[in-house]
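Re: the pair you flagged

First of the two:
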Amino acid sequence: MNTPKKPPLLGISIREFARRDGCSEKLVRRHVERGGLARFTDGTIDPAGIGTGWRESSRGSANAADRVRTSSKKMSALAKVSAPELSATAEALASVTDGGAYELAILLSEAKMPAADAQALVNAWHLRGRAVAIETLEEIEAPPEELDDWRDHPRFKVNWMEGMRIAWDDVEMAAAV
């Protein structure tokens, strides 16, 4: 007897959102309850909100420069390099391309595409998304003084799985849920 397959999730869990954004689950839950972060009908949260300053109302005295410094510190520690700070726009564009790659990877894994094929497709998609993000940045703001080009920033050089601190096994586990 065939059991109906669960529909794919629209977003990510509170736990996953908190992990990716570097904050506590409690803070994310509080913002969801207060309407600061929208929930999809399946109870998940849109990963596009990661790195967008949604915590601003809970930080009171924090300003945009503090948020950018925090994001840059997290990414430079991850990349093991000293990196120039990113604007909120640059961090958001990088985060969205990483999150989109993750969501695509889950969908392909759920569709039972062989892992090697899925990884190749997701990596190709991510590289194109990254290129569009960089082109967008080039149109609206100059790169940090230390760089000649946005492409030179370590945040735009790191692979999406490294940027999100995950392995393909994590994708497969998320798809199995």
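Second of the two:
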Amino acid sequence: MDRSRACLARILPTTLDLAPALDPRLPDEGALYSYAILRADLQMPPGKLAAQASHAHAQSLIAYLLRHPEHLSHFHDLGVSGTRIVLLAPHENALLRAYDQARQLDLPCALFRDSGHILPPHFTGEPIITALGLGPAPRDALRPITRRFSLA
């Protein structure tokens, strides 16, 4: 078992099969998309926006790999990550609606809550939802959710 599979095996239930096999239905790199949808109402500076987008992308990929550990080599060993796009949501409710829709469509997704950081006026150290990560998935599968948001 290679090092990345051994690491994943330690954090996943032991009943999952981590044998090195790619799902032939997994799209090629050019067809995979991941979106980070960030809250525009929080008026985050560029560095904070970049950090929140990174967290959202990572959390969504982790959520995907927990459900499909057999695809780990596709993302790690082959260096495949697909296209990553950052969008803006006008407010938290729009983000939560998108999250609910993604879950209903059984798409990989993860809400990211920032906590412990102070950056007035919105970041007081208390947990606050800042971003939604969607994907990786084919663009057409994500389009019903992403089409209503603008590019960051």
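The longest strand covers residues 128-138.

-B.
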